[in-house]
Design brief:
By secondary structure, the chain is α+β, with helices and mostly antiparallel strands. Strands 13, 14, 15, 16, 17, 18 and 19 form a seven-stranded mixed beta sheet that branches. The protein has a six-stranded mixed beta sheet with strand order 4-10-9-8-11-12, with helices on both faces. Strands 2-1-3 form a three-stranded antiparallel beta sheet. Helix 4 packs across helix 10, helix 4 crosses helix 11 and helix 8 packs antiparallel against helix 9.
Length: 619
């Protein structure tokens, strides 16, 4: 078997081209574990095998993609890393969830809002930001400086026709009651885009011109509004001025590496003003050197960024290595990009400050993780003592049942290892034995635990190298936590059976008073609700509830999507998707007024009226 595998791999290596591009190493399960770029794919892969690197040791197959240039290979590499999240690559931590500020330019009166997606056409995005707090602070500042609507939906206003509180506290010009016309509102949105894009000097000149014109026309209230905005912009420029006009517009990047962790700080200077400072953590399991981390960060950050500046200042680790990343950034920007290693002056000073911030961020992150580990260890030790366990409950599994309204009953299994969630091991169950006379939580819990123990027995017999083996079900829990009281605990014990119940500790946690019940004891255990042991159990219980509720809503929405619009005359798959995309959820379709249905893009008015009549006819 091993000989055949080696022969197959050797044959694949012989077929690799001497050309620039991307290569992908996959393990025996087909999972991509490493993505690399190269000027020559065959030579670079040969280096991996000659040095017995981790990717080559895990590789069961090799795939590749040829590109025209090494710069194109760098961009393609980052796309593959983002898509497949290979474990051996340097990659941004939590890169799927970085927040942005978006402007809905496809709407007549655009909104400015918080989002974590960046793919909708007709929207302009600014970011990514390294924290949701930064985005909310930015939106709060924009609300004070510029007036824009925050109401949801393509049209401004509420059904009542009364303006919301934002109008009365001067956060919105109220286009919903025609208090501001479309052209003026759009000019305001343009000013917001200028502000978010860092064009402060031009924005200040424009505001000053508008203030002067309004005063000359004796529109003193409007002149005062422009004056206040101008003062706020000038105040920001003064407070955050970093080097007069010496730096202009640039990103200055500092990198720090410590073991398997790295941090990158991006100082965003716009018109000589420090417009933002973003910090990003990176996973570096293979302990790649700082120059590789810096190059990987540049690719991944600017792949996600809404824009690329003409000047990016980096550290000395990239000396002699800037040509390919600069070419890749130029392709991403659609124009020339200078990637400079600053040797002196304000650019070097500010970049070194970014690097110092990266080092401090890494140190603080290590300290926080050390404290969390100690706290979790203390909680596990306390829980073991309270439950009389011989060892620490390293693996805790929490179960919950969800059946809102008595339909689509589901259950969840969440896993905490060493006191922390292990989301890859979470599992979901559809209850098979649903009753026609309503839900039975006890029967559901009995069924779920019986299925869990059955899977433990069957999966543990499979080889760990068998691709069909489920690692979560194959693992034996040290502690099972049931959401509920004595009744739920009893049902769970019936499902587990006497043999498994004798080797696995099972307890339940009742929410009302956070009481912990154990088998054989009619009274709750004397565990204080505010103790570390109880708080750990509460976290497991709450996570099981959240996961079960999410699965229930997913099933309910899927059923509604299949039933609410299916069968309606004139509504095919394309229109069905358009209606759901417009409203966001089946619930909103059901709650929509006739006017809101008629406003769906591409939906004829007659068909909208038919849909409305059908929905309200059938309820």
């Amino acid at each position: 078997m091993t000989h055949d595998h080696d022969c197959d791999l050797l044959e694949q290596r012989r077929g690799l081209p001497e050309a620039p591009g991307v290569y992908l190493f996959s393990d025996q399960s087909g999972r991509i574990v490493y993505v690399g770029k190269a000027r020559s794919i065959r030579s670079r892969v040969a280096n991996h095998f000659s040095s017995r690197s981790a990717p080559s040791r895990l590789a069961a197959s090799i795939d590749f993609l040829v590109t025209e240039t090494e710069a194109e290979a760098l961009l393609a590499e980052q796309q593959f890393i983002k898509r497949h999240r290979p474990i051996l690559n340097v990659r941004l931590r939590d890169d799927k969830s970085y927040p942005y500020v978006a402007i809905s330019l496809d709407e007549e009166f655009p909104r400015v809002y918080f989002t974590r997606e960046r793919h909708r056409s007709g929207r302009r995005y600014f970011g990514p930001y390294s924290s949701a707090k930064q985005v909310r602070e930015t939106l709060d500042l924009l609300g004070k400086l510029f007036q824009y609507r925050t109401c949801e939906g393509p049209e401004p206003g509420r059904r009542s026709g009364v303006p919301c509180l934002d109008f009365y506290i001067k956060r919105c010009g109220a286009p919903c009651i025609s208090n501001v016309d479309r052209d003026e509102y759009r000019r305001n949105i343009d000013a917001i885009a200028d502000f978010l894009g860092g064009r402060y000097s031009g924005l200040a000149d424009d505001l000053e011109a508008k203030m002067t014109a309004a005063a000359a026309a004796h529109e003193f209230e409007r002149a005062a509004l422009f004056r206040d905005r101008l003062e706020a912009v000038r105040s920001l420029m003064t407070r955050h001025r970093v080097a007069g006009e010496a730096i202009g517009t640039a990103d200055l990047i500092g990198i720090a590496v410590a073991g398997e962790d790295a941090n990158a700080q991006v100082f965003q200077v716009r018109d000589g003003v420090l417009a933002g400072r973003q910090g990003f953590y990176l996973e570096n399991r293979e302990r790649a050197p700082i120059e590789q981390v810096a190059e990987e960060f540049l690719g991944q950050y600017y792949l996600a960024a809404a824009s690329v500046p003409a000047l990016v200042v980096v550290g000395p680790e990239l000396t002699g290595r800037t040509a390919v990343p600069a070419e890749a950034l130029a392709l991403r920007r659609g124009g020339p990009v200078e990637l400079r290693v600053a040797a002196r002056g304000d650019k070097r000073r500010l970049r070194e400050l970014a690097e110092r911030n990266a080092e401090l961020a890494l140190a603080q992150d290590a300290l926080r993780r050390q404290r969390r580990r100690a706290q979790r260890s203390d909680a596990l030790a306390e829980l073991a003592a309270e439950l009389g366990l011989e060892g620490l409950p390293i693996r805790i599994e929490g179960f919950d049942i969800s059946n809102l309204g008595g339909e689509h009953t589901v259950a969840s299994m969440v896993v905490f290892e060493a006191g922390a969630p292990k989301k890859a091991h979470y599992r979901r169950f559809r209850i098979r034995g649903e009753r026609s006379d309503g839900p039975d939580d006890f029967a559901s819990m009995r069924e779920v635990l019986a299925r869990r123990i059955s899977r433990l027995e069957t999966e543990s017999e499979l080889s760990p190298y068998d691709g069909k083996r489920d690692a979560s079900f194959a693992a034996t829990p040290d502690l099972i936590l049931i959401d509920g009281g004595k009744g739920q605990l009893s049902a769970a014990l019936d499902g587990i059976g006497p043999s498994a119940a004798g080797s696995i500790t099972v307890v339940s946690l009742a929410k009302q008073h956070e009481e912990v019940f154990a088998p054989g004891s009619p009274e709750p255990l004397p565990i204080a609700p505010d103790s570390e042991a109880s708080r750990l159990l509460q976290r497991v219980r709450d996570e099981a509830h959240r996961f079960a509720l999410g699965f229930h809503r997913e099933r309910r929405d899927k059923t509604m999507r299949q039933s609410v619009l299916d069968g309606l005359p004139g509504v095919g798959p394309v229109r069905k998707r358009a209606i759901l995309a417009h409203f966001g959820s089946p619930d909103r379709v059901l709650a929509a007024s006739l006017e809101e249905l008629e406003a769906v893009p591409g939906l004829p008015g007659k068909l909208a009226r038919t849909i409305y009549a059908q929905l309200h006819k059938t309820g």
